[in-house]
Amino acid sequence: MTTYNSLPDNLPAPEDDGHAAHLPGLELPIIQLPATDGRLVDLSALSGLAVVYAYPRTGVPGEPLPTGWDDIPGARGCTPQSCAFRDHFADLRAAGVEHVFGLSLQDTAYQQEVAERLHLPFPLLSDHRHELTHSIRLPTFTVEGAVLLKRITLIIEDGAISHVFYPVFPPDRNAADVLAHLHGKRAQDQE
């Protein structure tokens, strides 16, 4: 039986393909994304610091993963990544992050199951129409006919992308890497 809470050994690491190089400094377009808390969220209109971690897809316990999923560099690990952001949520807030969101191309109804099962203290956003993905050219890949986001994390300040984590690996360390970056930036700003 597949477990989603931990990562298998020997997962292939993704390589930087350059598909996120255009994102730092980019001002986000006005696009409203449905969230699992019932809101419509426009990332371009948020004030302060926001962290958005994008992931390919969440699995549902008892349902099989796509064929060869563990062999696709960077595909596996959506649940461990979400759990890490959940577990570091208070630390992120203490570091000045006002908004945390997960983002995938799955619809809100599908995302609701994982948000509830994992007890996430932040909403998941759905770009099921691919509006944000196409508009800012987020990196994607295709599995079994489905277009999915490559794992990427955006730090957004007042509607513009200030930093990008890409590729993200291992996914369960992503939240800690974001925190380390924010603490380093704060220390640099105080010098």
Question: Can you describe what's shown?
Answer:
- InterPro entries: Peroxiredoxin_BCP/PrxQ, Redoxin, Thioredoxin-like_sf, Thioredoxin_domain.
- It comes from Xanthobacter oligotrophicus.
- This is Peroxiredoxin.
- The protein is of the alpha/beta class.
- It has helices spanning 78-87, 89-94, 108-117, 131-136, 174-190; strands spanning 32-34, 40-42, 49-54, 97-104, 124-126, 140-143, 146-149, 152-157, 160-165.
- The strands form three sheets. Strands 5-4-3-8-9 form a five-stranded mixed sheet. Strands 1-2 form a two-stranded antiparallel ribbon.
Query: Based on CA inertia axes, which overall geometry fits?
Result: globular
Provide the low-confidence segments as ranges: none
Please identify the structural class as seen in this structure. alpha/beta
Largest sheet features: 5 strands, mixed
Task: Please count the helical segments.
Answer: 5
CATH architecture, please? Answer: 3-Layer(aba) Sandwich
CATH class wording: Alpha Beta
Strand line-up across the major sheet: 5-4-3-8-9
Name of the CATH homologous superfamily:
Glutaredoxin
Indicate the radius of gyration in whole angstroms: 16 Å
Instruction: Compute the separation of the termini in Å.
Output: 51 Å
Sum up the structure in keywords.
five-stranded mixed β-sheet, disulfide bond, Peroxiredoxin, 191 residues, antioxidant, alpha/beta, 5 helices, peroxidase, Glutaredoxin
In short:
Its EC number is 1.11.1.24. The protein is of the alpha/beta class and 191 residues long.
